[in-house]
Amino acid sequence: MAKPKVCLAYSGGLDTSVILKWLIEQGYDVVAFMADVGQVEDFAAAEKKALAVGAVKFVVEDLKREFVEELCFRAIQCNAIFEDRYLLGTSLARPVIARAQMRVAQQNECIAVSHGCTGKGNDQVRFELAFYAIQFLVQPSIKVIAPWRLPEFFERFAGRNDLLDYSAQVGIPVTSTKAKPWSMDENLAHCSYEAGILEDPDVTPPDDMWKLTDSPLTAPNTPEEFNLSFEKGIPSKLTTASGQTLTDSVELFTTLNAIGRKHGIGRVDIVENRFIGIKSRGCYDSPAMTILRAAHVDLEGLVLDREVRALRDQFVTFNWSKLLYNGLYFSPEREFIEKSVLASQDTVNGTVRLCVYKGAVSVLGRFSETEKLYSAEESSMDSLIDFSPVDTTGFIGISKIRVAKYGQAKADAGESLSRA
Amino acid sequence: MAKPKVCLAYSGGLDTSVILKWLIEQGYDVVAFMADVGQVEDFAAAEKKALAVGAVKFVVEDLKREFVEELCFRAIQCNAIFEDRYLLGTSLARPVIARAQMRVAQQNECIAVSHGCTGKGNDQVRFELAFYAIQFLVQPSIKVIAPWRLPEFFERFAGRNDLLDYSAQVGIPVTSTKAKPWSMDENLAHCSYEAGILEDPDVTPPDDMWKLTDSPLTAPNTPEEFNLSFEKGIPSKLTTASGQTLTDSVELFTTLNAIGRKHGIGRVDIVENRFIGIKSRGCYDSPAMTILRAAHVDLEGLVLDREVRALRDQFVTFNWSKLLYNGLYFSPEREFIEKSVLASQDTVNGTVRLCVYKGAVSVLGRFSETEKLYSAEESSMDSLIDFSPVDTTGFIGISKIRVAKYGQAKADAGESLSRA
Amino acid sequence: MAKPKVCLAYSGGLDTSVILKWLIEQGYDVVAFMADVGQVEDFAAAEKKALAVGAVKFVVEDLKREFVEELCFRAIQCNAIFEDRYLLGTSLARPVIARAQMRVAQQNECIAVSHGCTGKGNDQVRFELAFYAIQFLVQPSIKVIAPWRLPEFFERFAGRNDLLDYSAQVGIPVTSTKAKPWSMDENLAHCSYEAGILEDPDVTPPDDMWKLTDSPLTAPNTPEEFNLSFEKGIPSKLTTASGQTLTDSVELFTTLNAIGRKHGIGRVDIVENRFIGIKSRGCYDSPAMTILRAAHVDLEGLVLDREVRALRDQFVTFNWSKLLYNGLYFSPEREFIEKSVLASQDTVNGTVRLCVYKGAVSVLGRFSETEKLYSAEESSMDSLIDFSPVDTTGFIGISKIRVAKYGQAKADAGESLSRA
Amino acid sequence: MAKPKVCLAYSGGLDTSVILKWLIEQGYDVVAFMADVGQVEDFAAAEKKALAVGAVKFVVEDLKREFVEELCFRAIQCNAIFEDRYLLGTSLARPVIARAQMRVAQQNECIAVSHGCTGKGNDQVRFELAFYAIQFLVQPSIKVIAPWRLPEFFERFAGRNDLLDYSAQVGIPVTSTKAKPWSMDENLAHCSYEAGILEDPDVTPPDDMWKLTDSPLTAPNTPEEFNLSFEKGIPSKLTTASGQTLTDSVELFTTLNAIGRKHGIGRVDIVENRFIGIKSRGCYDSPAMTILRAAHVDLEGLVLDREVRALRDQFVTFNWSKLLYNGLYFSPEREFIEKSVLASQDTVNGTVRLCVYKGAVSVLGRFSETEKLYSAEESSMDSLIDFSPVDTTGFIGISKIRVAKYGQAKADAGESLSRA
């Protein structure tokens, strides 16, 4: 009789190799799944290792395009940012990876999906909430096996040495390279660094930690200029200093990553608040996303109505970012929020001229050929065309009604004019 | 019989000199008032000119300390920022200037205050809403004379040449230096640049425009490190690379400005939305404020509760910034908001290690000797002390209830797993 | 040569009759426009009077259907309410009236529109912001004549006696009925009452003031039950106690008004905050709207996801209501908000069983044949199908992490268990 | 050696009597704790039963005053309401009960606290999050025993019959009265009804279910009027129709309950969203709270600044209510929010004249002797004192700038004037 099959999110590393073997020990056939979201990876070596450990099948899926177009560009439309700093690189990748893993599970008639996320992090939540939202489209009875939350697993493998001993014992090939003193997760949007020596929030990350960005200190001494165009808030064209023009989403994105890498753009080092309520230190380098967000925010200044922008900033940006961080991409509330943001982007058409230099991205100028909210004539202090200064007197006369009441109450209460 | 007196906010420039003379023509005695909010200014020359034009008195008030302590530091506690970019330098100065002008008006028994703000900008609103809130503490009947909104003035002085002609005619000394092709407003928090050639939002500002920052391109090739400490969210100590320690608010602030200037920190170039509904292009350089905000945001990551931070970000930061921009510092809603933000800062105690280099400010690390929300032990993926991974399974089990319903509805509606 | 034409919003009352005549005196031909938004009105008498005063034309437009379907039902989908009490009856009517008046102005080649709103109220703002948004669809150069804000008018007609004297003088027929000691505005959604004796907020409105509702004190001693069904949040069917079934929007609405009138449903008496910053006392009776809102809010409890509801309550309901109140129906921000709310209503399908009695509307029960978010099985405390109580332990275990930190900080600070 | 002690929240009912016995079986001494939060209860009988079952001690604590003053009145200041309908009666009681239970646990040197809440409800979360926040003030190592979430308990007692059988077997006296076909929770603020026959949301609750309110159908045919005064938003005086004056918080509250009961005030029947994500049908009758909230909302119309009110409505009311519902009273975010709301109440001083009749509460009028935000003079359409209608023209002239841009864009896009 055929064994039940499990689709495991496989990384090629120590943890998921042990999990792969352990799942086989539990009586499962294992389909090893890898997502290609743009990370630097030797997929052939990973395949070889997975099959060597005992996987019945190895599947890699190229998700780069859907990752960029569906998630990264949507984040840019939302000006997404978590806790004022983090551009959500990992959070954005999880939905496409989880969806692909469920597709692979379905195609291979798996009765469960499994992953190697630890029990205290955000990723387990992101993967599993996605699985549970998607399961009905696949097979409602599909199970999730999270070994790092199963006592029989986490008590057996209490430390790295237990994993290494087990690997030696069962013949899992262990890469000779010494483990980094932190953990990483890489995709097109960013590379993240956490744990290990980074757990002391006062330890400055070593410069060779950053994988996607060169150091600003050694970046070129000459700024590099380029133009980014948007259509309905979506990056639509990149024109480089050399005159190269890119319109394909993935090419545009990877070219921006290359430009950003060279100039050290997008390094972030923060203490953030995980969904489960623990504070955690994370470092991220996100070259393309940093440039795209700066350009999009700038263009909106030119072409978006003030009140739409204010409502969007307070409501959409804040909530969309929080939802994504907490793993709620597949949720009714994310769909609800996106209806408004998509509508708001209809006018976000134009071009931003940018410059990168030594770790910073600057805006040199911006223009739109179609949108007319900005008018130099109207803005000008020197022109009174279509504008009567007397109106402003009335505007102030009305706006002051409430503040005058406020002042009168203060006076009645005996307050004085001295410093508060 | 004594003439009625007007207290005029005097800048020493062409506009307010003409206004001074014009007010005298209208039958007033004029008290010329200047606020020292840290701008580079020849106050003696301004006094000489004001008296030459005919002012009965010249008063300058040093407002630097109240500006930094009451407004700038409060803005830092709020992480204040307008439309994602502008640190509100001008908006922050207006309340202290307006209050001081009203004090001077009161001391000199003026029946009106006057200013030289144009009829399309934000500053007229900020000054006048402040005046109208404060008037009851001074003299409820005090009037505001805004010449640039009076037809008898703005029709007479329709262009710069009219002002120059009048100056020549009435003997107002005109500085020979050619006017800048933009207008500026400087204080300790920033210098702003707008109008003139900047009205084309695609014109890159010339590098020699920036008054408070050296160019990142010519900034030192060596990063400069320093430490900033906060007590209850207020900057309390700056320790420089050379070991110098500053705790006086104004000294700390001006030293940060000097450090930031040298390394080109805090240049911003945006299209923003004025209170009166017109879009406007503004450039700002705010060295100290940029550094202080980056440090404060970072420290809050370490010491502020997640939900307090989220409510503060969505509610306080957004609204406080909008209020200040729109001239509503003296308002019941600003007082209302501040009660919460002040309370939230009780735990914002600690030190941030920073680095500035070629236009960018980076965080090297942070620590707090008193606050304990962050725990490396708890954060560590390797430690299960005080933490059972089984709890997370339950957490996900409950959190998934809603998303599973969502997925089921999607499945019932016939959606598939393919790209959205 | 033809005189320039003005389209005047004409009510048949004293004010707009005087304005009509005054406009003619200023050299205009006047097209008198009346909107039929369901108010009780003798349109024939109004026409006769308008023509007698000198209007060149009288136009009445039936706007009941677009008022109910476009505005009232949208308000119900939004659970719209202003300052916790007011169902926005007047605010909802203004956009359809203004749009129709502009259509009539266009059809009659008017160069201006005019209205009789006073200079301190909300309606002038609502009408004119609508006019200014719509003008480009009609004739960009169209003017607005607001006599009550023109010194030459308001100084001439300083009181009611001036209006009466003028009427006598120019032969405007004055209705002999004594004016009510308050002003009213009626449409299908409500009747409003303000000013006059109501300006003392401690004066209880006389019972005979209420025009659309009988007194709860004299309402039937027997409750009346009926069912309301919604499709995508839109009222789609009313089934009365007698078994009558109504599906036409206007019939459904007017029948609900009749039911509500009989049972005294929907009287509101508040002090509210006008857009221009003045507090004002207003009374409103809104029978159908009160019933519809109660039913819609109830149904959403059954069929709307929790987080969608929470975001909608905090964001959409609040802001949509404020926008409508302030006259910003024709605005980019209203369009922005509606995208989300419309999407959220896809699942709002079901029926609410209601009861009205002596001024109160109660919900007797509700059901949906299509939506399945509610599950009695799942909700039941007695059933553990699909649910492990152990999950809740984990959920609490994770949720407590932050509050335990909070408690520990309190303990460290020496707080005790006694009352706060 | 002494057995370890557990403090059990004891109700006198079947569940907690079985739990009491079961805890003894597990080797604990049990201190039975009852909170007096104003429910109708035979405390002597409960004590007798607890001791009969084997409790080593029985403690009842009178929490009525702290419940009313600390929680109920704070809720009134916040206009607290959950999902537009529920006045949070149970949610408000949990913090004071949990705190008292922890005090009793501390005084009796208990090593654990226990409760009889089921595993799918809100109350377990509310109690336990409170316990975990408070534990450090008592004994950091204190445990929580939640039998309905322990497999060894819930698998043994799978249905009511198992509880009855066990009771018979171990000699727990079972009240002969037949159980209600729903469960209830009563305190001064309300009585709640859920589960059982109420799980079908289309079943109308039987009229004899409601415990705190007489039926509106049989309520007096004569309305009852009374006055409620507030100081800083706190109910400070009740003056009844008979001239009785009450100022003591608990007396005022219970008298309002009596008035409301007689007139059938405050019945609510909703489907709500539990914290754990399940929808649930709940019925509540809350006479005093309903009256107090109506009065407080009304008074704020008279005395609260518009923008403070708007920020409070959107931010404080929404979030405070959600926090309380979800059991997060003891949390940093609740403290954060309250700082603003308390400040906002400084001006909420005045009296509301009210009337109750057949299930509805109406406002007859309101006045304040100290607050002056409302001015009949200013509000009056007939008075132009301190007000120039010309200002409104300017106000509209400025406010229209954005909407005219919007209209122009629509026109450019070819939209027409017809119905949207």
Short description:
The structure is a homotetramer of 420-residue chains. The first copy, chain A, has 420 residues and is an alpha/beta fold.
What does it look like?
The structure is a homotetramer of 420-residue chains. Chain A is an alpha/beta fold. The first copy, chain A, has 3 domains: 5-76 and 90-179, 3-Layer(aba) Sandwich (Rossmann fold), CATH 3.40.50; 184-304 and 348-367, Argininosuccinate synthetase, chain A, domain 2 (Alpha-Beta Complex); 376-412, no CATH class. Helices cover 43% and strands 19% of the residues of chain A. Chain A has helices at 14-25, 43-53, 64-77, 89-107, 123-138, 151-154, 160-170, 249-262, 287-303, 306-325, 332-344, 376-379, 389-412; strands at residues 5-9, 29-36, 57-62, 112-114, 143-145, 183-186, 191-194, 224-231, 234-239, 245-246, 267-273, 279-285, 350-357, 360-367. In chain A, the strands form 3 sheets. Chain A has a 5-stranded parallel sheet with strand order 3-2-1-4-5, with helices on both faces. In chain A, α8 packs across α9 (287-303) and α10 (306-325) runs antiparallel to α11. Chain A is elongated and about 85 Å long. The N and C termini of chain A lie far apart (81 Å). Chains in contact: A-B, A-C, A-D, B-C, B-D, C-D. At the A-B interface, α4, α5, β11, β12 and α9 of A face α4, α5, β11, β12 and α9 of B. Chains A, B, C, D: InterPro entries: Arginosuc_syn_C, Arginosuc_syn_N, Arginosuc_synth, Arginosuc_synth_CS, Arginosuc_synth_type_1_subfam, AS_cat/multimer_dom_body, Rossmann-like_a/b/a_fold. Chains A, B, C, D: Belongs to the argininosuccinate synthase family. Type 1 subfamily. Chains A, B, C, D: Residues 182-405 form the Arginosuccinate synthase C-terminal domain.
